[in-house]
Structures are given as structure tokens and as C-alpha cells.
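Task card 7
Instruction: Convert sequence to C-alpha cells.
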Amino acid sequence: MKAGEGSSGKSDHRPAEKRTVDMQIISDWVEPGGKVLDLGCGRGIFLQYLTRKKNVFGVGVDVDANKITACLARGLNAYHGDLFGLMSRFSDRFFDRVICSRTLQELQHPADTVLEALRVGRFVTVGFVNNGYWKNRVSLFFRGRRVRNEVYPGKWHESRTIHPVSVTEFEEFCRDNNVRVVNRVFLAGDWRTRRRFLPTLFCGYAVFDLTLDADLQPGGGETAKPG
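Output:
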């Protein structure tokens, strides 16, 4: 899991503080004792949290060798290398859940990665910054540039985001690929307050729970409504 990038213009919430909210949401969806794969696991903070709280068998993968070293120091199962390459080694539905949080927009091939995650996992949880957030739109319209704040501190060429995505675009992707949205939560720009009205405009961060199986239902979360 990567350090957070977000859409909030407020300076009173650090990325580390924002991280705890989506961690809790995802944790509520994780089945106790299950097998979990964390794509872009970072230093293993969330994977360790799940291991302790939900007693999961966790596996992490990240392209940053230093972060994998930190995972190993925490006693976690972690691999250094390509996310897609690692998943190709596992059989269908090997994991109960695959988590791709704060990683999607940094992937070279995000669509292929999500679909491969759906092959190896019964459920796939995806969290991402909503590029259609209203402050992003206003900044581009009036200033001709994207938002610069504590979670987007760098210039455009310094950002790790190569495939920004909006809520609308991600939901279109799910429909086009017959992916069932089991649960979804939309957070405001503070990444704390839940937003149900016009999420594509007022959602700063979105968390989706996905599956390809029509008969599967996880243990927690909000059941998604069509549309």
C-alpha cells in the first residue's frame, strides 16, 4: 500500500491520518482467517494490521525493495517485483481477497491488473483517488493546473500517478467487464466523511469491493445499489 495521495485541499489532515479511515473500511470487509494478497503493500503497515486484527494469512508485493525489507522486518510474507507477474503464479481463487489500495493510478496496466486480481481472488478491494473530485475540476478550469496540496505536493512530472481515474470511469470499467460491485464507499475530500450524493463530484476517495461471482457475498460493508 502506497503513501496516500488525495484530493483534499485542507491542510489539517495528514496523509497518515487519512490512511486510517480507508484501512478500517477495508478491514471490515476482510474475512477473518482468510488469505489476503496486498498489491503495492508498501512497508506492510496495513498487512500487519490485518494479520493481527483478522488473523489472515497475508502476502504482500511491491516494486520498492526497501519497502519489502521493511515488510520482512515485520515478519510478513512479502515479495519484491512485478505485481502482475506474481499473480500469474497463483491458481484461480487462491486468495479470499486481493487488495489494491492507493496503487491503481500508479500501475502501467491497471485494467489488466484488476482483472488478474479478480482471477486469483474471490473478492478484490480497490481504493483510489477520484480524479473527478470537484476541487480538481475547479482548479483545472480556473487555474489550468491540478490541485497542489499536502497529498499532491509535487509538480506534474514528479507525480507517481500515471493513470488518474474518476468514479464514473471506474464504474464504467466494471460494467464493461461484467465485474460485480458488491460494496462501495465514497469519502469526501477529508477522506473521513461519507458521501452518497453525486459521488463522482463530491467524493475525494473511493473504495470498491468487487467480484466476478454472482453468488458471493462478503461479511460486511454496504451492499452496492445498481447505477
